[in-house]
Amino acid sequence: MLNRVMIINTGGTIGMVHSDPNDCDSPLRPANDWSEIIKGHPILEKYDTDYYQFNPLIDSSDMAPDIWIKIANVIFENYDNYRGFVVLHGTDTMAYTASALSFMLKNLNKPIVLTGSQVPLQFSRSDALQNLITAIEIAGNEKYGVRLVPEVCIFFRDTLLRGNRSRKVDATNYFGFLSPNYPPIAEVGADIRIIKDRILKTTNNKFYIDTKLNTKVIVLELFPGLDPNYLKCIFKENTDIKGVILKTYGNGNAPTKDKFIEVLKYITSKGIVIVDITQCTRGFVKMGLYEASAKLIDAGVISGVDLTPEAAVTKLMYLLGKNMTTDEVKKYMQIDLCGEQTISQYDFIYENLPFSDNFEIKAQIPEEVLKGELIEAVVRIKNITIREKENEDLKISVVIEGNENKNVEEYHINNKITKIVSREKYDFHGIFNHTLKSIIDRNHFLKIKVNANMKIKVENIKFSLYKEY
Fold first, then answer.
1. Which of 227, 285, 347, 354 is in the most buried spot, having the most CB atoms within 10 Å?
2. Which of this chain's residues are annotated to bind substrate (predicted)?
């Protein structure tokens, strides 16, 4: 069977057939089996496939987490017997299912290709036949002369997209799906051209599934005129909500008025995780990189970087299902797990610091940071509550060094930032650029040295590394 592809039909437009086979104007109904689906398309008979059909078939609008789990289990039970899998699915919620499967299928080294169509296969002008044939060939990979794609993906029209980067963007056009913040992993014309530098690497670790989900998540979208009290009422009445996807403006901007920020603090004080993603189709949330995001960070909101809404929802459900602490969920929401986001954020927070003019803290460098491209590093000193000399401006210098004795001048970097923190300000925010990677590459940990021109008392010092996928 390893030369065969398993087709899993969950439902959707692609598998609809006429209720009267002899009347092309008769109402559509779900197909009963594979033979009904391929009737009139003998070319599909040449492919080595086995067929599994959900009973009952699921309308895309009725897709739910328990069905994601069932799909994962079908793949797990048949994983060793097939070269790859094609999942037939309704288009409206396909990106949600693809995202969910990407988190639940662990150590994947076979293709899982989701596809569907805007028009049923039975129609003469349907997009279904091309979508289905190409999905089968991608799932069959080397059998059909196609490079192995060891991940969950969506094929539609002429592009293969990473599943957890995909979105349905058009209700009728045959080019119905896009991957806004990550390029296609294959382009399909006369040939199927897999772009190897864009696909995930295979693993030798044993395949397994992790299907525990906590679905107590909601999505909230900001708009001008939104009364923060409405949000507060939602969380007063629904005490079991565990996570919020907050769709904000632009690069993650939200109202800065105290009333709104206080509501966010109220929500996070209940142990609820708030993830900030952009309302825009393309782009990044840049929380933590710039001082403008300080109010949201202080309210307990975390960055969703460039997660799609579909990936953000399913990733949060997946992490909440692992019975982690709130801080652990926040940590892993900001780290790329399976290619779902471009930038990973690693935070180191130091609290209970003494009243002093000199601090030295250490940060052990995560193995993942050593493998990636460093974007920036940020040092933030939060809430400077006491100053030894209240009538003078505070001068703070931050130096980042490694655990070795080599002169940093060899690296041609600026590893020192000095700023004046006026009496009206209470935070220090310093950004170190990607050249800091020169130190990271040669060290097991970093030393962050903070020197001030007077003794100060601070709430905490936060050191963040931003790594590009």
1. 285
2. 60, 91-92
